[in-house]
Design the sequence.
């Protein structure tokens, strides 16, 4: 048994003949911001998708706090994520997107306003997501990831599309979370 927050063990993923992830193993300790780096197409997003159960590994697997993501007792309070290709409905208001996620996880509606505030979207939370800039959508993704005040955060390119002030803000934000003992991988 390990006290690592995330353990990836021999993870392999093939798409037909294409070997996207080749026997990858690593551990993310608690309280650390861990950068997951590699060129485009290296398999980073596929690895993160496998950790959160959005893609089935060809071999190997991953655990979050010692469990397969499907076996977590309270997933929304355990792991929050921004994952490539999982978006918001452009016709819905940002606050309503959060309310849907929050309700599914059994969270009070007030928490949705809190996370909007946290990511600097409080003033525009009633606007439809389709009117958001790319950077605002990134912030909304982070708000959704933070809904359950999760112990582990997995963020795929969280600073993508943010302006320089936003990049500085997201780095400070993640540093602050890690200082609270929360592991962050992205
Ligand atoms: N759903 C998919 N179907 C087929 N091939 C995929 C799929 N998702 C990713 N791939 C392939 O897997 C490889 C790794 O992609 P990805 O994990 O997105 O890399 P990264 O996030 O590091 O840029 C790429 O060659 C990509 O084309
Ligand atoms: Mg990627």
Sequence:
């Amino acid at each position: 048994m390990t006290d690592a927050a995330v353990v990836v063990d021999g993870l392999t993923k093939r798409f037909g003949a294409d070997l996207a992830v080749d026997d990858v193993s690593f551990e993310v300790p608690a309280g650390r911001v861990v950068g997951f780096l590699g060129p485009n197409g290296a398999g980073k997003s596929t690895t993160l998708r496998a950790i959160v159960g959005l893609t089935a590994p060809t071999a190997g697997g991953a655990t979050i706090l010692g469990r397969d993501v499907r076996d977590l007792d309270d997933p929304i309070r355990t792991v929050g994520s921004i994952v490539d290709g999982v978006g918001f409905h452009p016709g819905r208001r940002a606050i309503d997107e959060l309310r849907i996620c929050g309700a599914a996880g059994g969270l009070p509606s007030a928490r949705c306003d809190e996370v909007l505030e946290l990511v600097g979207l409080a003033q525009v939370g009633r606007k439809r997501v389709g009117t958001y800039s790319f950077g605002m959508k990134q912030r909304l993704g982070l708000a959704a990831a933070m809904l359950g005040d999760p112990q582990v955060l997995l963020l795929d390119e969280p600073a993508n599309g943010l302006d320089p002030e936003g990049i500085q803000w997201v780095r400070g934000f993640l540093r602050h979370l890690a200082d609270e003992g929360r592991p962050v991988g992205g």
In short: The radius of gyration is 16 Å.
